[in-house]
Amino acid sequence: MNFTCVCAQLSDNPQEVYTSATSTAIQCNALLPPVSQNKAATPIQINIYGKNAERFSRFEKGNKVYLHGATLRFDLESRTFSLHGGTPTQVTNQFPIFNSVILSGRCVKDIDNQDARAFKTTENGLMICHQTLSVVTGKNQADLFNFYAMNSVDDKLNNAELLVNFTRKGTGLTINGRLVSSGWTDKETREQKIKTQIQINKMTLAPKSQGEPKPIEPKANVASEQEVSSLWGGKTADEGSDPWTHASGGGLPDLPGQYGNAPELAEDPF
Questions:
Q1: Which of 8, 171, 230, 257 is buried most deeply by CB count within 10 Å?
Q2: Each residue of 95-140: pLDDT tens digit?
Q3: Tell me, what CATH number does 49's domain have?
Q4: Whole-prediction pTM
Q5: Which residues on adjacent β-strands are paired with residue 162?
Q6: In terms of residue numbers, what domain contains 14?
């Protein structure tokens, strides 16, 4: 599974780009709002296809949009994130800010709890664990997503502790989190840098295999001639409808700012 819902502000005007002999897409750079005061805005590229592309092409630089049901991709070579597909809708400042990512895949490494880069406990009692998830994108192809979990020793949901104790290379995992960026200034080059990861607030381990699965047998049959009653008075969910969803996340502390303050932007999104 790869399902993303976010709010963003367009950094430039959407442009049509060639994707194949029979297909084009509307592409645009955007910024996701910082998740807190000491975090940076997250740069991301948006790619919209099909009928939604025509509507997206009428958006302009500076517009605030909500993108529902996109696929998150990560280019390992350029180390950049991008969103593909989904339904875009223009919103106002009164619209709540969404930042929700759901991914299913397999962990790519064992966690060394003696390595502070993989697992550590801070002076104020926060446990922080880092892991990497491989998410299939096609035949023999996958994207790698770095993510982390964080909790205090008093939290009822100890995701960091669960990660370090129960995930290994090859462990199946589904995570629900948000894109978080830390920004800092390189002391030598004075260059502004940004590091983006996924901070999770929920996770589900895949069930362990218990031998050959039993066949699924139907429990009930519906007669083919039975008339199915119309829902919602016959209305349909067309592609032009505005998508709505519940806010995800919340309640998680921010990762301690070991990178310093976020870089100053010309205009923060939202």
A1: 8
A2: 999 999 999 999 999 999 888 889 998 888 889 999 999 999 988 8
A3: 2.40.50.140
A4: 0.78
A5: none
A6: 2-209
